[in-house]
């Protein structure tokens, strides 16, 4: 009888020791609770995937009624066309490494939209496009007329030279509705009355060899 009780007591002690060791063992975190395993998402606009591209952009040459091409590399967001990025680059102006080139588009100009119909490309800009780019325009109407003409053809020549479209029409979004209306000849720095139709590339105002 005593032997039987000794056996029972020994078994009980073993069980108690086993339970105690399990209770004291450290609990490991699950892998998915580790902060390092969390997926980090960048909500900022620059996180959007982009492609690199390049193009020859046209800017004004000093105070002459001429355009000069300058090679630019830039990002093209995957949800936009290359034409959108090119127009934004033109609005930014030439690279700081060139002191003989000058911006001809008012930097406050915003790109409203770009659409195409066959070989025609329609570019709608904010009404800031029509504002003078500097103080000289208020006292020199000839200067401002030339500046507007160069601004128009800096867009037209640059876009047509990409090889997809043969004509470009610039529209102005006066009312903020996004549809836009054609430039007048006067607003485009051109002679005559009425609206400007879609324009072809103008090679006569391009200064080559620079």
Written overview of the protein:
By secondary structure, this protein is α+β, with helices and mostly antiparallel strands. It has 4 helices and 7 strands. The chain has helices at 2-24, 82-92, 136-139, 141-160; strands at residues 50-61, 64-77, 101-102, 111-117, 120-126, 167-173, 181-182. The strands form 2 sheets. Strands 4-5-6-7 form a 4-stranded mixed sheet, covered by helices on one side. A 3-stranded antiparallel sheet has the order 2-1-3. Strand 6 (167-173) and strand 7 form a beta hairpin. The chain is globular and about 45 Å long. The protein starts with a helix and ends in a 28-residue tail after the last strand. The relative contact order is 0.13.
Topology:
Layout: H1 2-24, E1 50-61, E2 64-77, H2 82-92, E3 101-102, E4 111-117, E5 120-126, H3 136-139, H4 141-160, E6 167-173, E7 181-182
Parallel strand pairs: 5-6
Antiparallel strand pairs: 1-2, 1-3, 4-5, 6-7
Helix pairs in contact: 2-4
Structural key phrases:
4-stranded mixed β-sheet; alpha+beta; single chain; 210 residues; 4 helices
